[in-house]
Design goal:
The structure is a single chain. With about 500 residues, the protein is of the alpha/beta class. It has 3 domains: about 350 residues, Alpha-Beta Barrel (TIM Barrel), CATH 3.20.20.80; about 100 residues, Sandwich (Immunoglobulin-like); about 40 residues, Carbohydrate-binding module superfamily 5/12 (Seminal Fluid Protein  PDC-109 (Domain B), Ribbon), CATH 2.10.10.20. Helix content is about 25%, strand content about 30%. It contains 12 helices and 26 strands. The strands form 6 sheets. Strands 1, 2, 3, 4, 5, 6, 7, 8, 9 and 12 form a 10-stranded mixed beta sheet that branches. Helix 6 packs across helix 7. The protein is elongated, with a radius of gyration of 29 Å.
């Protein structure tokens, strides 16, 4: 996410609205402000990012937009090599009550809170992100602690992208500092969470983001929240942004299950956050998050029980620039002012419905080597992963010519077992094959792979495999189903063995 830019005219208009809203009823403390006791964040929180460099009234915009919680972007060093963070890297805006103290105090008095965020694209690109800039772990931890005590907040966000994803020394320093702060908070009776905000693919974290979390775990950090930036994929594809949010988050859920084993499904979803970019993102119109997408993501987030819903950024939440992408002051899509805020705001403290019934499928053993003519078996295990046990229908696919496979019984109650039986003929082709055992129930399916290696059988086909999209002419040969086939004339899309004796494909026999 971006950093300081010139303040546009539209934002000045928003400030006027916010100032009026504040004067109408949001009480601000005078002068530097006095911190109220921090309100603990709910287990489900909506906290859009607020651009701190604009001069806008944070508490005023919070009131005008209906947001109780905001994520403040960003804290960074003023110069590379410094250990002192400032708001937007501006040395006139230190971590002090004089900078946003009154705003944060007012939000806390209204039952909300702020989440200060360190980093952001500009800091991560210029080496002014605190852990990239400062080489002393204790000083980094002290900077985090100063933010907590100055503003009496209960969560710090770490926006890690661009060069900060590959700065291994900075990653390790940051995570060591986080661990120090977590220990300090525990010994002082404070609740302090950290959220790791990271770029994502449409199916979970890339290796660079995963490395950040792996290093955190190796340093003893308790992972509270991992917040995916579900935009700016830059993969030159058209996107259903709501669907891609869900697949990205599912991928993260599965990665977290490996990183922090032993947690329940609900606990894993409770560690997930997503940050959208309303309207047209920096890539362009192919990545447009619509108001309808926002409703879909909200309903999904409630159903899954994720931790955090956010978007970049509050000052974009208006339709003031139709068709324009990547602006910091408008979404570029058709919407009413604060429409995305109003869609996400009810997520604060939203209750999660009972989990849907779900199950898993696994195999033991998951592989076997047999001589052609031999057989093997494997135990098919099912287990309840959410909700209640349900009937699961079992099937197996992928057996090549000369191999038969079956599952018995063909249906079990989740938690029950079955047997996979595999037999081969003497004419089975030597090779390694993947058989897929699938369990299906109530529109949901899960699979496990059984790897079968056949030895001592016939030689594998030498002709190129048949392709449904290729064009063949008379005399061309292909392999399909363990046989070699010769085309009699021009053909495409006709499967060997389905055109009959007088069809285009002549069966030359088993390979």
């Amino acid at each position: 996410m971006t950093g300081p830019v010139r303040r546009p005219l539209f934002r000045a208009l928003l400030t006027g609205v916010a100032t009026a809203a504040t004067a109408a009823g949001l009480a601000l403390t005078g002068g530097a402000g006095t911190a109220h006791a921090a309100t603990a964040l709910p287990s489900h929180v909506s906290a859009p990012y607020f651009e701190t460099w604009t001069g806008d009234s944070m508490s005023g915009l919070a009131s005008a937009s209906g947001n109780k919680y905001l994520t403040m972007a960003f804290l960074q060093a003023a110069t590379k090599g410094s250990c002192t963070p400032y708001w937007s890297g501006d040395s006139s805006m230190p971590v002090a009550a004089s900078s946003f103290g009154s705003d944060i105090s007012a939000m806390q008095a209204a039952g909300g809170n702020a989440i200060p965020s360190f980093g952001g694209y500009t800091a991560d690109n210029t080496g002014t992100e605190i852990a990239d800039s400062c080489t002393n772990v204790g000083s980094i931890a002290a900077a985090f602690e100063k933010v907590v005590t100055t503003y009496d907040v209960s969560r710090i966000d770490l926006d890690i992208e661009d060069n900060s994803l590959t700065n291994s020394a900075g990653i390790d320093r940051r995570n060591k500092a986080v661990k120090q702060v977590q220990d300090w908070a525990a010994s002082n009776g404070r609740t302090v969470q950290f959220s790791y905000t990271l770029p994502t693919t449409t199916h979970g974290l890339a290796s660079s983001g995963l490395n950040v979390l792996q290093n955190a775990v190796s340093n003893g950090v308790k992972l509270d929240v991992v917040n995916l930036m579900t935009f700016d994929y830059y993969d030159n594809a058209s996107h259903d942004m709501a669907a891609d949010t869900q697949t990205a988050a599912q991928g993260l859920h599965d990665q977290l299950a490996q990183l922090v084993p032993g947690k329940t499904d609900a606990q894993l979803w409770g560690m997930v956050g997503v940050t959208e970019m309303p309207g047209i993102d920096d890539f362009g119109a192919a990545e447009t998050f619509t108001t309808a997408n926002a409703t879909s993501v909200y309903n999904w987030a409630v159903a899954k029980g994720i931790n955090t819903l956010s978007f970049w950024a509050l000052q974009r939440d208006n339709g003031g620039c139709p068709g324009q992408g990547g602006s910091d002051s408008c979404s570029g899509t058709t919407q009413s002012t604060w429409q995305f805020s109003h869609t996400f705001e009810p997520f604060n403290g939203a209750s999660t419905p009972p989990p849907a019934n779900d199950f898993s499928v696994s195999l033991s053993p998951a592989s076997a080597t047999v001589t052609a003519g031999g057989s093997a078996t494997s135990s098919v295990h099912t287990a309840v992963t959410a909700g209640s046990a349900q009937a699961v229908t079992l099937s197996v696919s992928g057996a090549p010519a000369g191999v038969t496979a079956s599952v018995s019984p063909g249906s079990v109650t989740a938690g029950g077992n079955a047997t996979l039986s595999v037999s081969t003929t003497a004419s089975a082709v030597s090779g390694t094959y993947a058989l897929t055992v699938t369990g299906s129930a109530a529109g949901t399916s899960h699979s496990a792979t059984y790897t079968l290696t056949v030895t001592g059988g016939t030689t594998a086909c030498t002709a190129a495999p048949w392709s449904s999209s290729a064009i063949y002419v008379g005399g061309n040969t292909v392999s399909y189903g363990g046989h070699t086939w010769k085309a009699k004339w021009w053909t495409t899309g006709e499967t060997p063995g389905t055109t009959g004796e007088w069809g285009v494909w002549q069966d030359l026999g088993a390979c």
